[in-house]
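agent> fetching stored inputs for the 6R9 docking request
agent> found them:
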Amino acid sequence: MGNIGSYEEKYKNFEWQLSVKELEYGKDGMYNLAYYCSERICEKGMADKTALIWEGFQGNKKKYTYNDIRLYSNAIAQFLLDNGIKPEERICLFMDRIPELYISFLGVLKMGGIVQPLFSAFGEEALFTRLEDASTCAIFTTMKHIRKVRKILHKLPDLKYIFVVDAGNKKLEKFEISFNMEKAQLNEKFDIYKAGPEFPSVLHYTSGTTGKPKGAMHVHSSLIAQHITAKWALDLTTDDIYWCTADPGWVTGTSYGIIGPWASGVTQVVLDSGFNTDKWYSFIERHKVTIWYTAPTAIRLLMKEGAGPVKAHDMSCLRHLISVGEPLNAEAVIWSQEVFKKPFHDSYWQTETGAIVITNFPGMTVKPGSMGTPFPGITAVVVDPKKFEPIETAGTVGLIALKPGWPSMFRTYWNNKKLYDEKFKNGWYICGDRASIDNEGYFWFMGRDDDVINTAGHLVGPFEIESALLEHPAVAESAAVGKPDPVNMEVVKAFIALKPGHEPNADLELDIMNFIRKKLSPLAMPQAIEFVSSLPKTRSGKIMRRMLRAKEWGEEIGDTSTLEND
Ligand code: 6R9
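agent> prediction call returned; pasting tokens
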């Protein structure tokens, strides 16, 4: 089982065209990726195959075949058209990991809409920023989250529809329309929008150091890369039971929680519930999960519980383990080899890259602590930070850079071509991470090259936290940085300078925390606050977050003149 055996052979002859041929991508002028995730699988004789097994947090279960997801996504697409929504309009998905989230993702794409998934734990401020930026016209949500939408609706003139998927008999307000997927009029033959390969598909927001979060715009032909990486890097085959633990509010949850697996005709399982060691192992055992894609924070949490809980379950079903989102420490790889009898394989990529670009392939010797080697078809190097030229000397740290042109590359930042252009230097796409390459071509991650905080695999921009803090009447200025944490790798720490007349004390700290809690998602919440009399700045007045960060990590601060461009 698996695609492992022939990997070396395939690597030698790789071209993206291989994926195009396998998918028959573009056949009869069809480039819409949603077609390849539902109709095509049915046409290939797998209509009755299970596409999704879902378990809710209360243990409730649902199961959908490929024919079900085909019909339901058709119904959603028709429903959107019936409401006058037009191709290229932005439709946000703001739901927990319920079946409607996964299926409406395809529904939006089938009518030519641009799908904008947002993490349901976002607070109203985080939601507002992203809906405003995208001029989103409709949002799918549930009664659990509708309160946040109602609060900001008056500030969003473009938001015309709120589709509530579980309203039942509950009273809805203006602009709110009840939509029950399973009771919707089924549509055997929906006329799927004839999107071209370069037609916009998914808009994922990601955080940077400065400014608001930016929307990475993807196109339908991203499928070419998502399909072949799902096959070769995740090793998905039609015999597998696959579990991706990521939420589709983040890119891993769409590229490899919807598109990759469904375009491969895989049965995937979803657990809509928070982390719990026993729950997770039982879930794997119960569904006989064969391929598991998760994140280092989860692995570290499992490690903390030791081998005991692993032994209490039958984990022999697992055949391939992959990790993403943060540095995968060597200890985690060694531990997984000990307890699961197989190592976690690292995979490196970004919202902007759309698909895995560097990975420890199945069948490859894993060097614990290394991310692996570039995916075939990807030219990845490290460049020096001044001239952006590839570094030839093994072991020298530089910026990870990719040669533009891979199929799933983002095509722009929404409404921000300037920022997009700034990501390219000397003909390379600069990822914003630092790494070195050893003499066998393996990449070793060093850290980010900006001030973005990676907490439990989620990128948090300091700007959003600092903006929320600044709205508090006592805060004069603030800086948010990552502070080491044994499980989450980093957590947010805020340094705050107060306005005259305010004294630092525990009551004020609590008041500030409560104030920002309403604005930020739980993961962006500072775990620590330190009051300072002033913040370190460059001569031009920029806050030197890196200096504060270095102190937290016990690192050499070094020559401060190089810390920020003055
Ligand atoms: C897919 C995803 C991207 C950033 C990326 C880097 C960090 C991702 C990693 C990793 C070390 C890995 N990152 N994979 N760091 N080792 N294997 O996570 O997308 O949310 O955009 O984050 O995450 O810093 O630049 P995104």
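agent> quick read of the result: The chain has 18 helices and 27 strands.
agent> awaiting further instructions
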